[in-house]
Amino acid sequence: MATSEHFFYVLECRDGSYYAGYTNNLERRLCVHNEGKGAKYTRGRLPVHYVYYERYETKRQAMQIEYQFKKLNRLQKEQYIRKGQSE
Q: Concatenated DSSP letters for 49-66?
């Protein structure tokens, strides 16, 4: 059965860097990252925590936003997160 919830998310790592990704289960994905079984990038930067997420109707939408976010520089990423948190 397909899920109807798709998320673009941003984690902040222990070193202050950001990691952006896609999931259909926020709680499970955070656990996987913090168990060291998630993305290679986050494994050496544990623990991680969510600083932002957005819900989308389709996987495609969420992954397009993830792709666009990853092209931003650090300042632009911070602005994106702040703007989203204030809405």
A: EEEEEEEESSHHHHHHHH
